[in-house]
Write a structure and sequence with these properties.
Helix 1 (4-17) packs parallel to helix 3 (62-95) and helix 2 (35-58) runs antiparallel to helix 3 (62-95). Helices cover 60% and strands 0% of the residues. The longest helix has 34 residues, at 62-95. By secondary structure, it is an all-alpha fold. The chain has three helices and no strands. The chain has helices at residues 4-17, 35-58, 62-95.
Length: 120
């Protein structure tokens, strides 16, 4: 799985390398938390809630099913928000005038030395 803490730290390093201001409270990602542990906890909670939903439907227990569904929604939203915050901080890098990044030339290709292949 991707190391979200490393990704978060690289976003910060990039902003600082491009001479941008970086005050943690002005960014969306929680720079003080262990993002990997938070995601693991949310994924575990989602898995358990989905299991509860499955069991409740098997038992035709609509009250438990509703409770499980609310928990599924909660964990799904927390997971979604984690990735939304990452996307928002990346967008902020491109939109903040103080962050000076070079223009990407038209037709630019990532050099082969990076061994980067697009996901299909």
């Amino acid at each position: 799985m991707i190391n979200l803490n490393n990704l978060r730290d690289n976003i910060r390093v990039l902003a600082e390398m491009a001479n941008g201001p970086f005050l943690e409270e002005e960014w969306n990602i929680d720079y003080g938390s262990d993002l990997n542990n938070l995601l693991d906890g949310d994924l575990d909670g989602l898995k358990k809630a989905a299991g509860l939903l499955n069991a409740s439907l098997g038992g035709k227990d609509l009250i438990v099913a509703q409770c499980a569904l609310l928990r599924v929604q909660l964990y799904a939203m927390q997971i979604s928000n984690s990735f939304l915050n990452i996307g928002d901080d990346i967008e902020k890098i491109f939109l903040t005038k103080e962050i000076k990044l070079p223009d990407i030339p038209e037709g630019y290709q990532i050099p082969d030395s990076y061994n980067y292949k697009e996901a299909v």
